[in-house]
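Narrative of activities, Objective 1.

The group set out to show that a structural description can be obtained from nothing but a protein's sequence at a throughput compatible with the screening campaign. Below is one input-output pair from the validation batch, recorded exactly as produced.
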Amino acid sequence: MTAYLLAIGIVALIYALLALGLNLQFGLTRLVNFGVVAFFAIGAYTSALLAIAGVPLPLSFAAAAVLAGLSALPIGLLSLRLRDDYLAIVTLGFSEAVRITIQQEEWLTKGVQGLPGIPRVFATLGPGASDIALFSVLALVTAFVAWGTVRLTRSPLGRLLRAIGDDEPALMALGKNPTRFKVQIFMVGAALAGLAGAFYAHFITFISPEQFIPLVTFYVWMGLIMGGAGSVRGALGGAMLLMIFLEGSRFIKDWIPGVSEVQMASVRLAVVGLALILVTLYRPDGLFGRSQK
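Output recorded for this entry:
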């Protein structure tokens, strides 16, 4: 039971990192990124391949974040001309292009067979102790990112980013150029997704293209919306709520007779979707956001 709870905690923190990155992009600047899973996959495969090749884990983690951030540069430049639904379509297409590339480039990624033998973080400590150490490091990293995000939102740059999301034409009329700030914040959010991917790869120790489908992006958006976009508290709380719904719904089978394991997956999605609808209707700013009368 302890190992199960520890694994759930690690995955929840990984989703928290993804939600914090998306919160920077959408919560502040209103950049609609439906390709979160693409940068997640880039980070996972980058760190895994480098670690298998013998590169020290700290360097492979850093490379995962850097490469994911750099891969967001072209999309960030596109965001200068695209808004809302158009940018969402482009980022969604980019995520599928990354997944298909990983699937086809078997010489590097082993394609649909998956990439096994990824080194665990703190593997020398043993299975149980290594997970505890990974959870502790991941918690510290998430806390640092959350602290940095809070500092950012309270700074003049943070107010500028919010102004970009609220009314970019008005900001430009005041003589401010939001171009480089939008690109930079998009790259920072992507780098956080790449870092989360590195943690995921070294925790699971096996990755394949089927693990990086658009459903992962959907989950991150759900967590952010339920928690409250635009706030660190909402991003962190939403990620925790998401894991409670996803894992708690596993036990619904005990209360619904005659439901198979295959049907249970659809029931779980229905439960999470219903929760998202209710939150959107009654708490449009999220459960951890400001309530609206």
